[in-house]
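Q: Two folds, back to back.
A: First:
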Amino acid sequence: MSAGGAVAGGTGLVLVPVLLVVVLGGGSQTCGPTGPLAVAGGPGMVATAEATAEATAEATAEASAEASAEASAEVSAEVSADASAVAVPVGPVAGYSGVQLTNAAHIMAAAEQLGLPLQAQVIGVMTAMGESGLRVLDRGDAVGPDSRGLFQQRDNGAWGSLADRMDPTTSSLNYFRALTAVPGWASLEPTLAAHRTQRNDDPFHYVRWYEPARQVVAALAGVDLPPGATTTGGASACPAAAAPAGGVVTAGYGEPGPWGGHSNGRIPASALSPVPWGSGHALRSDATLALTALDNAYRAQFGRHLALTSTYRDYARQVSLKAQKGSYAATPGTSNHGWGLAVDLGGGVNSYTSAQYAWMRANAPAYGWVNPTWAHRGGSGPDEPWHWEFYGVPDATV
C-alpha cells in the first residue's frame, strides 16, 4: 500500500489529498491538504476514504508522538544541562549536601525551564525535602508502597513511568506542571500549594521544610532571598500559640464573662496570649489556642488566614469606639472583647452570604467559637456576621 492510502495495481490515476505534518519546536501543526498526489491505480482498485483517513491518522499520530518525545527529551536535556551548570556548594546548606544539593539544582532548573519564578523553585525543593530528603528513593512507604523518586510520585499514571519518576529532571518537570495546574497556587501558602499538588493527608506537612528550602535555593541561585520573600501567601503555618499565662484555664462551655478576677477591659497583657498571625492581637490563652486550631482548618479550606479586625479591647479603646459609633458599640466595660473572648473577622466571614461565613457556621463551634444568635441575620441584636465569641466546648482539654 502506498503512503497515500491507495492500492497500486493498474494504469489509472487516483487523486488523494495528503496532510503535511510540520514539527514546530516541540509541537506538531497539521497543514493541508496541500494538493493532490498522483498515485497509480487500476480498474476496480480505488483508494477509499476510510483507508486514507486511517493512514493519515496513523501518520499524524506517529509524527505527533515522535515530536512530543523529541520535545520532552529536548526539554529534559536542557534542564539537565542547566542543573549541571549550577555550582553546588562544597559545604552543607541547611543540613543538605552532595547529591542532595545536586538534586535541588535539578528541581530549580526544571522550574526555570518552564518559566516559573523563585517562588516555585522554593516550593519544589521544599516538597522534595518533605517527601524524600532530596534523594531519589527506590521505595515507598506504608501509605504509598508504589511511591518513588524525589517527590515520591505514585504509580497511578499521573506521573509517568517508573523511569520518569526515578529521573530527577523528568519528575521535577511533572511536579511543576501539576503545581501550576492548582488554581491560585502562587497566592497560597507554600505548604498548601504543595499539599494540593501532592494530595497528601496533612495540609501543613511541608511547613518545617520551607526555611531549609529557601536557604538552599538562595545558595544555589546565588541570590539574597529573605524569609517570606518568595510568596504573597505567607512563608509557613502559624506556630502554636503560647501556653496559657498564669495557669490552665478551666475548660467548659458558656457565654463569655468575668474570669481570673480581672475587670472588663483591664486585663494585664501577661494574662493574655498573642494571636500568632495577627500583629497586636491577643485573647485569653485558651481562646488563642482554639482560634489557632480553627485557623489551621480555615486555611486548609481557603488558603489564607482568618482576617482579624478586632480581638481584645482595653477599656480606653472601648470608650473611643463608643464615641465614634454611638449605639452601634457596646457600653464601655460590657463588651465581650473586653474579656479577651471575642473577635471580629473580615475576609468574607463578614458577609452572611459568603462561603467563608457558611463554613464558619458549620465548623467553628467544634473549636469553641460561635457567631452568637443575637448577631445572626434577623437576631435580637444588630446583624454582625463578623462577630464571633469563644464559648468553649464541654469536653475541651486546654
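A: Second:
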Amino acid sequence: MSFAQVNSDTGAVPPTAEDIAVWLCDRIAELLDVRPETVATDRPLRDLGLQSLQIVALAQKLSERLGRPVPGWTVWQYPTVAALSAHLAGDGRPAAAADRPLPDPSGTYAQEPIAVVGIGCRLPGGVETPEELWQGLLDGIDAIREVPRDRWNAREWLDPDPRAPGKTTTRWGGFLDDVSRFDAELFRISPAEARHMDPQQRMALEVAWAALEDARIAHDGLHGTRTGVFFGTMAQEYHLATGADPASIETHSAVGWDNSIIPARIAYTLGLQGPVMAVATACSSSLTATHLAVQSLRRGESDLALAGGVNVMLHPNTTVAMTKFGGMNPGTASAAPSTRAPTATSARRAAASSSCAACPTRCRPATASTP
C-alpha cells in the first residue's frame, strides 16, 4: 500500500491508476491550455511546462480529489503522470533504490577495487574525448593561450605590478572554445532556463552524458538507481560575466548561478537516487570529489558513481584575486613545486582553468583503467 493511501478510511472503492491518470491529464491540460490527449504521461511534470508552484497546487487538488493527503514530496519522487498515478493507486511499484537497505560496509563491497569504466572530458586545447586527451599528452601540446576576446579584454586588466588595484599580472590561461554552446533540447531544458544556466552546469551535464556513453551505459537505464554524483566546483562568475544587473534576475537565476546545483542537475536529469555532492576544496576539489565517490562505493551507498569537476573562467575578478594572493605566474607556464598537487591531472579527473571532466566508477574488479 502506498503512503498516500494510509489515511483512506472511507471504505469506497479506490480509483485505479488509469482513473487518476485521466484526472491528472485533464488538470494539466487546463493549466497548459492544451488538449488532454496531448499530455505525455511518461514525461516529468516540469518537462511538460509546469512550474513548481503549479505542481504543488496540483498535489493539493489531488489530495482533495482522493480525499486523503498527498504529501508534497510525492510529485517529485514520482515526477510523471504514469508513475504518480501508479503510486497513488497502490499498484505495487518497487521501492526506490535509495530506500533499499544498504549493504554491510564491512562486506564484499569494502574489499573490492574501484574500476573506472568510462571517461568524459572537455579541456583546453580542443580536447573533447579521452582519445584526444591521451594523444595530447603524448604530443606534449601546450593548451595555454591568451585570454579569448569573448571572455574579457586582457590588455585592459593587465599590469606588471601585482599591487596595482583591480589588475592582474597575466593575460594567459587555459580556455575552452565556445563555452556558450549547449544542447538544451537533449536534456529537456527550456530555452528560458538554459539562458540563465552557468556554462559550468551545462558542461557538467554534457560531459557526464559523454562519460556514460563511453562506459556503454544507457542513460535511461539509470533512472531510480543508486548512482551517486560527486563534482568539484569553485568560482561563481556567470552573474558577473552577464552584467550583474539586478533587473536581469529571473525565475531561473537562483538555481542557474548556484554551484551546488551542478551535480544536482545531473542527478535530476538522469533520475538518479544516490548521494549528490558539490565539493569545494580549492585546487583539490575534483580529487576530493573522487575520494568521496570511492568512499560512497565502498560503503555501499552507491552502486555506480559519477565523479569529476568543472571550472570555467568567465570574468577576470577571480584572476585578479589570485594575483593579489600571489598565485599567478606572469609568464605562460605554471611552475608548481613538486610537492604540490598538479592543477590538471590525467584523464581520470581534471579541473584546471576552463575545463570539465567526469568518470563513472564502479566497485568491482578493476578490469578497466585510464590511459
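Q: And?
A: Residues 17-32 form the longest helix (16 residues).
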